[in-house]
């Protein structure tokens, strides 16, 4: 399905959780001079306008990024760089966070199947060291794996509009790790009343680190929290996960 539009939810508490951890992991993985490969299954449009009608309609950014002042951090760097380039209402999606924080020796491979989102993604990003693919993210990443450089991070971030996607993410991760065992895989999932994320967790027959946070959106509907699974987490990631809630002024809290 191609109906999901993240513009309605950009900058909300779930985005903060995901993007804080992502930015910290990228900083951790790039401490040494060796290059890394960064990939995404569902890249989205790369940049969001928090003054756009979609964002104002839900008001979710007002409950997330607009409700806090980020401390000095990799995500704060990416946000400042994005707003210097695109204006004060701009918010970076994960592709733009990654491109801002990565270096000349690193490589980005971004998958997006939605035609409009793909077009916006190409416009939002610089072209150097970055490949943007209009294709299914699971198929595309498996086709390109293992990449060069071999050290790397994969973000798996679907909308989960299709209920079977929880099972699909687990299956994809098994296939990916078989082809590219050096990769770190970061899987995001929503925490909903139905608890369907349990299918993903039970289906993932790999060692992983689990991190979940809770929050209260004003409308009282939809997500009650955000979850991350890290497969092959790099050394130092446990410290990142411990400090992330405090970086939001406890707007999100560990559960």
The counted number of beta strands is: 10
The CATH topology is given as Rossmann fold
Distance between the termini: 31 Å
- The CATH homology group name: Vaccinia Virus protein VP39
Contiguous uncertain segments of 5+ residues: none
> How many separate structural domains?
1
Mean pLDDT over the full residue set:
94
Largest sheet: 8 strands, mixed
Overall description:
It is a single chain. Helix content is 37%, strand content 19%. The protein is globular, with a radius of gyration of 17 Å. The chain has one domain (6-254): Rossmann fold, CATH 3.40.50. It has helices at residues 13-29, 53-58, 74-86, 94-101, 115-124, 137-144, 165-179, 197-203, 237-247; strands spanning 37-40, 47-49, 90-92, 107-111, 130-133, 152-156, 183-191, 208-214, 225-231, 253-254. It is an alpha/beta fold. The strands form two sheets. An eight-stranded mixed β-sheet has the order 5-4-1-6-7-9-8-10, with helices on both faces. The chain starts with 12 loop residues before the first helix and ends with a strand. It is built from nine helices and ten strands. The longest helix has 17 residues, at 13-29.
């Amino acid at each position: 399905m191609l109906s999901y539009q993240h513009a309605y939810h950009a900058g909300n508490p779930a985005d903060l959780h995901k993007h804080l951890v992502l930015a910290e992991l990228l900083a951790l993985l790039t401490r040494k001079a060796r290059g890394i490969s960064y990939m995404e299954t569902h890249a989205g449009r790369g940049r969001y306008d928090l003054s756009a009608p979609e964002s104002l309609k839900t008001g979710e950014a007002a409950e997330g990024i607009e409700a806090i002042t980020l401390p000095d951090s990799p995500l704060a760097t990416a946000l400042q760089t994005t707003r210097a380039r695109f204006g004060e209402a701009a918010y970076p999606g994960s592709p733009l966070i990654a491109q801002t924080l990565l270096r000349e020796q690193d490589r980005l491979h971004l998958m997006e199947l939605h035609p409009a989102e793909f077009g916006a993604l190409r416009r939002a990003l610089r072209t150097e060291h970055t490949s943007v693919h209009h294709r299914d993210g699971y198929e595309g990443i498996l086709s390109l794996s293992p990449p060069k450089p071999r050290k790397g991070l994969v973000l798996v971030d679907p909308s989960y509009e299709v209920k079977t996607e929880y099972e699909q993410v687990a299956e994809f991760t098994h296939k990916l790790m078989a082809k590219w065992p050096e990769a770190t895989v970061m899987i995001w999932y929503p925490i909903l009343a139905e608890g369907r994320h349990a299918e993903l967790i039970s289906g993932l027959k790999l060692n992983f680190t689990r991190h979940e946070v809770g929050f209260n959106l004003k409308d009282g509907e939809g997500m009650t929290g955000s979850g991350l699974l890290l497969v092959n987490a790099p050394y130092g990631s446990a410290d990142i996960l411990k400090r992330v809630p405090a970086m939001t002024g406890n707007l999100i809290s560990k559960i």
